[in-house]
Amino acid sequence: MARRLADENGEEVAVEADHERARVAWYYYIGGLTQQEIAEKLSITRLRVNRIIGQVRTDGSVRVEILMPLARCVALEEDLKTRFGLAGARVVPSVDDPAEQQRLIGEAAGAMLDTLLTDGEAFGVGWGTTLSAATRRVTPRRLSNGWVATLMGGLTRGSGTNTFEVSTAFARVLGAECYYLAAPIYVPTPESREVLLTHHGLAEALRRARLAQVALVSCGDLSNRSLLATTHVVAESLDDLRAANAVGDILGVFLDAEGRPVDHPLNERVMALPLGDLKTIPKAILASGGLHKRAIVKAILTAGYVKYLVTDEACAEAIL
Q1: Which residues lie below 8 Å from residue 180, measured CB to CB, with a gap of 6+?
Q2: CA–CA separation, 151 vs 280, rounded Å?
Q3: Which distant-in-sequence residues (6+ apart) come within 8 Å of 173 by Cβ?
Q4: CA-to-CA distance for 77 and 20, rounded, in angstroms?
Q5: What is the pTM of this model?
Q6: Rounded to an integer, what distance in angstroms lies between the CA atom of residue 28 and that of residue 213?
Q7: pLDDT tens track for 251-285
Q8: What is the dihedral of CA 144, 149, 154, 159, to 10 degrees?
Q9: Residue 86, CA distances (Å) to 81, 258, 283, 303 in order
Q10: Chain centroid, CA 265 distance in Å
Q11: Rounded Cα gap, residues 12 and 28, in angstroms
Q12: Which residue(s) pair with 177 in the sheet?
């Protein structure tokens, strides 16, 4: 793990540099790639690859096995991609502080997202502390031919991590127009949901969400660590959700351990992009971690709702 530095920017640079060194070492000594293949895979120069290989040889990082902690993360990334058919994965070291863990996962997700965003593509986003942290690692730009769309309704109170706040923050960074699914995440009845979706503005927001080519979402379990589980409408249904074999939610839809939506009224009242549509987004990223989320993360991957994953080492090991 990178040494903590007083300056936050310095810490981020150190973490990225260590991750790059570990990845180069893994591909060269374990993956069997040539220096040129590594340079092309990581979009760096062959000279840089050569220097890193020389450094890890001389500083004792590489002997019979790779001793750098992040090398384990690189191996987990490869295992996750193989096991779940992912297009990409990023595993960060696990830390004891839950808030710090969310920040690390969120910023790693932002770095991944930064490489996937292209002008002319729509970007769909969910909510949560992890996704809020991702905005810090996205390079400011102007996506004049794309837009940001919320993938789910929100809460009626502000928290800095609410759907509307997170999507607005991304829209500012990306210089893009934002379309809001401006409704509560759960409406009173399935019938009221259908009526609301006849509203032109809400129907247009959902249409824009369906056109997303890139998405960033998180998930929650059924413990009080989940923002959604602490809301009144979900808290009063937790016993019923557990009885229905729910292990957590994605976009407000509660799933069982195999990633199937459970039979529960909340799933019929949720204002969100249908999970079938999420599955068709080619660059959908799930950013979530912590051992308490291992069941719901594995369920989402098992069902194939996303193509990319950002998580922490402990969660990755548990779901593998």
Answers
A1: 150, 163, 164, 167, 205
A2: 14
A3: 135, 138, 140, 141
A4: 13
A5: 0.79
A6: 33
A7: 999 999 999 999 999 999 999 999 999 999 999 99
A8: -30
A9: 4, 17, 10, 12
A10: 27
A11: 24
A12: 147
